Each structure stands twice: as structure tokens, then as C-alpha cells.
Amino acid sequence: NIPADRTFVAFKAAKALGVDPAKFAAELAAAIAPPPDSLIGEVTATGAFLNFSLHPQRLAAAVLNEIETAGDAYGTVADGAGRTVVIDYSSPNIAKRMHVGHIRSTIIGQALVHIFRALGYRVIGDNHLGDWGTQFGIILAAMQRYGRPQSEGEAAMAELEALYARYNAEMKDDPALEDEARRWSLALERGDPEARSLWQW
């Protein structure tokens, strides 16, 4: 384990010159004298390895100066300039309650947004709420079949989830129920007043 920030192996160069690799590395280390303001603090040799160690204080000062000079642009590049990236977040199915998995994928999505912006891309973050489609066709069909929830708030959500699960379970044994859910989904998309009324309940 060599305590250095960067190491170069002298074997190939020493072989080309016909000299001992360890001796060659030692001679190079002795010959290299970093200037007083250099980010390189020390040059040493360990066997045939030529080691460069950075000067911690000067490196820190250089980085802080670069951060202060660049401001918000520090760490950014223009590799993605002129290109667009769309990041899809959790996009939950709101026919069911959200869970910790939605938070996880949303956090990952936001991290990707920051990364791509730093790379110069135009970034569009999309968290599409699934309040349309087959899952709501199932909810509407279930409410028509079993009745609307009688509770309010969180309790009503629990009842809707139970209706959704019940209809899904029965749908596996009765293909007609799946067709009924599709009809409700299509009616919702076409603006059917009854479907819209149930959807907005």
C-alpha cells in the first residue's frame, strides 16, 4: 500500500533505458523539485514506483478559490448542451395509497435531475399521477358493483383500496368484469357524465 495521491511505475521506461527500475525511480524522485506554490507537495520513490503526493493546504485553497470564482457553475459542464432529458419520477397509481417505494424512486429521480442539469442538459422532471386508465376503470366498476365508500378521508381511501382489491380478485375468475372495467375506463376518457361524476367523487 503506497501512501501517495498518484503513482507511476518506472519498469517500462527503465527497461527501455537499460537501467534498474528502483534506482531509476529514486533518481527521478530526487530530480523532481516541485515549485513552492505547486499543488504537488512531495515526490518519493518506493521500489520502482514514483509517487506524487498533493499538498493538502494548497489543494484546499485552490479548490475553494475555484468554487468562489465559478459560483453556481462550479462542477458543471456543457456536455449535454442543446439536448433534453426527461426524468420520470415515481408516477404513482393513485387508485392505491402511496408507500415508501414511491419516495425512494422520487428521490432517485431528483438526484438524476441534478446530475443531468450539472452536465448541461435541459431537464424535464415528470411525476405523472395515474388518475386515469384501467386502474380507475376498475375503481369505477367496483363502486357501481359494490357501492361507494360510506366513510370520508383516510377511511374512505381504505374502503376504495378494499373495493379495488376485491374487484381485481373476482376479475381473475370472471373475464366479463375485466371488460366492464375497460368500458368504464373508455367512458371516462370520452367524458361520459356518469363516469366523470364517479371519478370526481
Task: Considering the chains and any ligands shown, give keywords for the structure.
3 domains, three-stranded antiparallel β-sheet, 8 helices, elongated, Arg-tRNA-ligase, ligase, aminoacyl-trna synthetase, Arginine--tRNA ligase
Walk me through this protein's architecture.
The protein has helices at 11-17, 21-31, 56-70, 100-118, 134-146, 153-171, 175-189, 193-199; strands spanning 6-9, 40-46, 49-54, 84-88, 122-126. The chain is of the alpha+beta class and 201 residues long. It folds into three domains: 6-58, no CATH class; 76-126, no CATH class; 134-200, no CATH class. It has a three-stranded antiparallel sheet. The mean pLDDT is 90. It comes from Candidatus Thermofonsia Clade 3 bacterium. It holds the Pfam family Arg_tRNA_synt_N. Residues 77-200 form the Arginyl-tRNA synthetase catalytic core domain.
Tell me the layout of helices and strands.
Elements: E1 6-9, H1 11-17, H2 21-31, E2 40-46, E3 49-54, H3 56-70, E4 84-88, H4 100-118, E5 122-126, H5 134-146, H6 153-171, H7 175-189, H8 193-199
Parallel strand pairs: 4-5
Antiparallel strand pairs: 1-3, 2-3
Helix pairs in contact: 1-2, 5-6, 5-7, 6-7, 7-8
Family: Belongs to the class-I aminoacyl-tRNA synthetase family.
GO cellular component, one term: cytoplasm
GO molecular function: arginine-tRNA ligase activity; ATP binding
